[in-house]
């Protein structure tokens, strides 16, 4: 059992591509995001439609159209994207008959929420780490 679905993973990859262009507000075409993030176009279109309905991304139609990250007063959180695409972050959607396990799962859910309660800019840290790993000389 995976914690995140492919839909959420693809959604995070796609919105991060838009996030990287937030200063210029450059429109990015679906095909370009699909190629960069290696996401099937049809599936990506469905994902971006859901993110658009939730006001996390904006789109413009036409030959020079595309997608861009929505302007927000606050930064978009990783958990915002996951919640739009997969619903609430829960370890267990059902209550058990055991108060001990109910408390355990409640605690896990709080920690899970904290884990993904980070802005999209947090992903830049991993991009920098990868860049440092790839910098080597012969």
Task: Record the strand order, biggest sheet.
Answer: 1-2
In CATH, what is the homologous superfamily? Winged helix-like DNA-binding domain superfamily/Winged helix DNA-binding domain
Backbone shape: globular
Structural class: mainly alpha
Please identify the top-level CATH class: Mainly Alpha
Distance between the termini: 42 Å
**H/E element order:** HHHEEHHH
Rg on CA atoms, Å: 17 Å
Q: Which key phrases capture this entry?
A:
single chain; 138 residues; mainly alpha; Arc Repressor Mutant, subunit A; 6 helices; 6% strand
How would you describe the overall organization of this protein?
It is a single chain. This protein has 138 residues and is mostly helical. It has one domain: Winged helix-like DNA-binding domain superfamily/Winged helix DNA-binding domain (Arc Repressor Mutant, subunit A). 53% of the residues lie in helices and 6% in strands. The chain has a two-stranded antiparallel ribbon. Helix 1 crosses helix 3 (41-53) and helix 1 (6-19) crosses helix 4. The radius of gyration is 17 Å and the shape is globular.
What would you say about this model in short?
By secondary structure, this protein is mainly alpha-helical.
Topology:
Layout: H1 6-19, H2 30-37, H3 41-53, E1 57-60, E2 66-69, H4 78-86, H5 99-115, H6 123-134
Antiparallel strand pairs: 1-2
Helix pairs in contact: 1-2, 1-3, 1-4
């Amino acid at each position: 059992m995976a914690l995140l679905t492919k839909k959420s993973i693809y959604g995070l990859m796609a919105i991060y591509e838009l996030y990287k262009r937030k200063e210029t507000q450059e429109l990015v075409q679906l095909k370009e995001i699909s190629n960069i993030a290696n996401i099937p176009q049809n599936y990506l279109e469905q994902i971006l439609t859901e993110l658009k309905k939730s006001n996390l991304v904006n789109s413009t139609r036409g030959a020079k159209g595309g997608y861009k990250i929505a302007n927000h007063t606050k930064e978009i959180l990783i958990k915002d994207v996951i919640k739009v695409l997969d619903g609430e972050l829960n370890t267990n959607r059902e209550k058990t008959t055991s108060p001990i396990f109910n408390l355990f799962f409640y605690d896990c859910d709080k920690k899970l929420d904290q884990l993904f309660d980070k802005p999209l800019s947090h992903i830049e840290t991993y991009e920098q780490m990868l860049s440092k790993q790839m910098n080597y000389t012969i």
